[in-house]
Amino acid sequence: MSNQMLKxxxxxxVLVIFWFxxxxxxxxxxxxxxxxxxxxxxxxxxxxPVPAALVGFTGISFVALIGLxxxxxxxxTWALSGFSNSVIWLxxxxxxxxxxxxxxxxxKRVSLIMVKFMGKSSLxxxxxxxxSDLILAPFMPSNTARSGGSVxxxxxxxxxxxxxxxxxxxRKLGAYISWVAIATTCVTSSMFLTALAPNLLAVDLIGKSxxxxxxxxxxxxxxxxxxxxxxxxxxxxxxxxxxxxxxxSPEAPAWxxxxxxxxxxxxxxxxLMASLATIALVLWIFGKEFGVDSTTVAIxxxxxxxxxxxxxxxxxxxxxxxxxxxxxxxxxxxMAAGLKKVGILDWIGANTQTMLSGMNSTTLIIAxxxxxxxxxxxxxxVTAHVTALIPVFMTIAATLLPxxxxxxxxxxxxxxxGVMGIITPYGTGPSPIWYGAGYISQARWWALGAIFGxxxxxxxxxxxxxxx
Length: 468
Hints:
It is a single chain. The protein is mostly helical. It is 75% helix and 0% strand. The protein has a domain at 86-207 and 216-320. The protein has helices spanning 3-20, 29-47, 52-66, 72-79, 86-104, 106-118, 122-136, 143-155, 158-161, 174-191, 197-210, 216-241, 251-263, 268-286, 294-307, 313-317, 320-341, 344-356, 361-374, 382-400, 403-419, 431-436, 442-467. Helix 7 runs parallel beside helix 10, helix 14 (268-286) runs antiparallel to helix 15 (294-307) and helix 19 runs antiparallel to helix 23 (442-467). The chain is globular, with a radius of gyration of 23 Å. It is found in: Membrane. Belongs to the SLC13A/DASS transporter (TC 2.A.47) family. DIT1 subfamily.
């Protein structure tokens, strides 16, 4: 039997097995059947026998068709509820920002400038790659587009200058650059609310559980003090633990200068793109004071980008990644909301309170943070991780933690989503891209992932002590 066939069968097998197991005490048959579909969807998101968006779309269609969440009208209202979610449209709009960076050449120019001014040594090149990602991170919620689409095309050419290839002297420079790139994009993905799409999805699910939507500023107030030192440490620590044999790189700035000459002078569209991105960031941070919603800002900026021809309407319509995420996240939001609607989360909360009520809040918080992080070993998608675990962990928190600790706990929990991507070669979107470059063996990747994962988790745990 082929691997693809096994991937197709696994979600269906999970559905059938759970469907015919009798419902536990306290859960209705409908709720248990919904949970069976939910488990099947999560397995499908992990294995991806078909595109992830289709997995979620199939899940909500099946639930609505057989009426697990109510009558026909209630079912279709629930199934389409995610498509009216403002956070999903913020993510969609931010994908257009990424297209603007790509089409204007601004993203590539930023990376080349970093190499030109910081790339005289291998360590400097590491920081150039890191800062290239950092500058783009607040505006690009797809770390795949940011790291894989903007940074990778520039950074992957640098080792070639020094005759470093996957099959020839990978440790000379290519391995170092690859690890710094993936490690720092994981850090920047946790640094900003808008640097990783699942951050926004998690915040939306948390808002539905607590009634409080974490703002850009609240996120930054907790995560920036934790992530800035970690960001600055990462290229140097990689240089110590996994050093390149090429220590100096005088050719890299010269190469970057030549590439910048090929790009020509900064264009009006690049200036416009930079200005619009800055306006968006300022309004995301301070918009509440002016009564402006973050999603309103995002879609307005996209409209201006199209009208100003920074991107075209065809660019918007042909952006498969954006529409894929729109459908994917909308269906997952509906599935997660269904857990509450059919009574599963209330059931989990009641049973959890009985099992964990003897733990003090500090011990419980640390245990939940560590468990949430380590469970990512079982997920090949941060989005799947969020969908499967955030509702459950929020139910536990709401049941057992004092009210004043719940909000800071949610920021720490959601803030760990970026950095947890470092632990495996499949843990976050850019991982397969940098792993696929071939400079780092699988065994070495797992070892480095364990080392850096332990460090990143330790910082998150320290953050829990400080802010909670």
